[in-house]
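Case study: DUF8017 domain-containing protein.
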Amino acid sequence: MSWFRGKKDPGNGYGYEDRAALKGVGGYEPADPADATPRSVTSAPRSTGTSSPDAGGLPPAPPPRPGLQPSLSGARRGRKSGTAGAITAGVVAVVAVFGGVVMSVGAKDSSEKAQSESERSSEAPYSPPPVIEVPAAVPGWQPVVGRDGSYAYDVPPEWTPEPGVTHGWESGPGISLSTSAFLDPGYCGGDDPSRRAGSGLTIVEDTSVRAAAEETVRVVAMSGFRTDAGELPAVAPDPSVPVELSFDGQAVEAMVAVATVWVAEHAEPCLASSVLVGAVAVPTQGGDSIVLVAYADEDKSDADELTRVLTSLRTVAEEDRTTVPGPTA
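Here is what the predicted structure looks like once written out:
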C-alpha cells in the first residue's frame, strides 16, 4: 500500500512549503543544503580504538534541538518542506547585484549596450555548475553526495538522490532532513510531495547516540505518519544495535535504531498501513549527534535494506571525489 502524502503549497512552483514558514524545525535552511560546507571532520582516539568526529563535521541541517522530545499533542501531520524559499532569496540577491550593473550601463547608448551584451553572451556562454561524484560504498547502489563530496551515503538504484532538497514535517513535533533521497516521488495522484520512501540528515544536541537514534525514529513516526485527523501511529521499536562507521578513515562507534510504525485505521489513501523508520546516530566531540534517517513503506523495503542505507554514511577522501560537468537541463 502506498503511503505519506505531504501537503502541497500552492504558493510556489516546487510543490513544497516555504522552508522559512515551517514551525518547530529551527527556521534555518542553507540556500542549497548540499552546498553548505561541512567543516573538516576530525577524530579523537578512544580507548576502544574508535573515535568521534569533531562537531564541525556536521552535514548541512537545521540547528540542533535538545533531545528531540516529541510532543504528542494531536497536531496535524506536517508538510514536506523544500528549497523554494531559499532559492527565491538567492534569485533576489542575484537580481539585486545585476540590477546595479544594468543601471550603470543604462546611461550609455542603447546600441553600445546591445553590442556589449552580445559580446558577453558569445564570450561567456552559460555552463551549469559542476557536480561532484563519489564511488558508492554499497555495490550497485547510488551515492547521495553532500556539499563538495566530503560525505555521502548510498541508496538503492530505484531511489532518486536529491541532495539539494530539505524535506520534513512541521508538527507533531516536527523535523527536517537535508541531503535527501526519495523513492517514487509524486506517485500519489500527481501530488508532488508524496513518496514511498525517503532519507536525509539532521542533528541532535546533547544526548547519547542511543537516545539520539531512538528519539529521532520516534519523532519521524509521530510527525510523518499521523493522520490528518491527528490520530497517532503505533510504534514498535526493535532493539538498538551498535555499529561502526568510517569517518576520516577511522572507525566511529554509532547506533542504529529501527521501528515498525502502524498507521491508524481509516487513514488517507497515501498512507500505508505499516512503514519502517530507521536512524543511525554518530557522536561528535562536541556532544551532538549526526543522524541519518531512512523510512519506507514496508511493502517497498525491509529492515535489512534500511540498515544498509543507514550504515553507508561516511566521509569521503578528497582523492575519491571526481568533478564532472553539471547537467545542461
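For the exam, be able to explain this: Residues 1-51, 55-114 have pLDDT under 50 and may be disordered.
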